Here is the input.
Amino acid sequence: MIKSNTIHRIDGKAISDKEIPNLIQIGYENAVKAEENSKFHRTEREEELSAQFMLKYSYELDAYINQFESLYEKAYQTKNLSDKIDLLNETVKSFERARKFCYSKGKGGTIFFQDMYEYLHNSNNQCFSYLDNIKSSLDAAIYQKDVVIPNIMDVITQNDGIYQSKIYQFLPDINRTVVQHTLKDLEADDKISRIKKGNSYELHVKNE
Here is the structure.
C-alpha cells in the first residue's frame, strides 16, 4: 500500500497550497531565531544605527576597509614566505585599526563592523571573524617557513637522491599533501631538483 506524502495540520486537515508560502516564511524565521550568530538578531533600531554610521563615515570607512582588504589580497598573491608573513602581520594591525575606528563611533559603528567582519558565517561555521581567516593564513605561512621547508630540506640534504615516495616516512608529522605541494614550490624556486624515476621522483638539493 502506498502511503500518502500529504502534510497535515495539527487539526488533522491537509495543508492547502495557499498556506505553503506562509509556512516557508515561518520556517525561515524559526531558523533565524535558532541561529547563534548575533547578526541575525538585530532589532530595527540597531540596523538603523548601523546604516546611519555607514552613511556618516563612508569616506573614512572606505579607507580603513580598503587598506586591510588590499593588504590581505596582496599577501595572498605573494609567494615569498617572509614577505607574506610581514604583509599578514600588517593586515592584522590594519584590521584592528579599522575595528577601533568603528567601535569608537558608538553602537552604530560597533554593530556595522561586527555584522560585516566579526559575525561572518558559512555552512561549516555559524560565527567567525575575518580576523580569524587572516590569523589562520599567518599561522600557515609561519608553519610553512619555520617547520615544513626546513624539515624537507634537511631530509633531502641528509639523504641525497631520496625518492619522493620514500620522503614521507621521514616527515610523519607533516601532512602528505603539504609535503607534495612544498616540493613542487621548492622546485619552482630552484631550491631542489626533482628527476622523474619510474613512478616517483629523485630529489636533490641544488647548490646556490
The chain has a mean pLDDT of 82. Helices lie at 20-34, 44-56, 58-77, 81-104, 107-118, 130-158, 164-167, 176-188.
